[in-house]
Design a protein that fits this description.
By secondary structure, the chain is α+β, with helices and mostly antiparallel strands. Strands 1-2-5-4-3-6 form a six-stranded antiparallel barrel. It has four helices and six strands; from the N terminus they run H-H-H-E-E-E-E-E-E-H. The C terminus is likely disordered.
Amino acid sequence: MANIFGSLTAIVLLISFFVAYKNKAAYEGKISETATQKGNLAKSKVRLKTAQDGVKAANDKRTETEAEIAKLTEETTAQQKAVDDLKLQIEAKTAKAAANKEQLDAIREKTAQVGELKGLAAKMRELSAEREALIQSIADTEAKLANLTAQNSQADGQVQTVRGRLETMSSGQSLPTLNTRIRSIYPTWGFVTLAAGNNGGVVTGSTLNVVRDDQTIAQLLVTSVERGSASASIIPDSVAPDTTLMVGDKVVPAAKTEKSTRN
């Protein structure tokens, strides 16, 4: 009987040991899984914080951008008014030139009629002097007209430039002429600063490409713009594999299609 009881006790101990072993393995697995989830959660929080900071900065600068757009609109209106004024001046000068030509033709006709008559030398000299004065007036008017036409063309070009810049900024894109570099990098916070700002064509909320050896290696979201500098968040998951951003990397505007695709 004692042997049976001892055998049963041994079996119970073996079963208990097996169960404890299984529970330990399951517990260790849970600990490992929990650690992995915590790591993923921490990464997600960092990405979320970066995105939230970018959105907040973009909202903070929204009023600034709208003010600049309003200013550009005023400039466009002023340029258009200048163009209209030049057109009116051109029309007036053209009308005056036509009137001078008509008067000159009339004088030439009178000169032809009295050219062979004697005793009218004084009248001829007077008409001849008047004709020369009209010829000079026509030449001056034509020169002014040419100058006004050139000014009109220049003003039209300036209006088109301002309109193009206004349309680009209104669409939330940096100007196509932008070509700058990364000035500094803050990897812990996930953002960089650029060596150009408003004066270089950087627009708040626009997307930029980081280019190295003619290849896009990362993308940036502009969050803050000053006159001569700007800040931009590094877009999560946009950095090419095995790539580290460096000070001096080239930065250009992202193509419109690239921005639309991400949105």
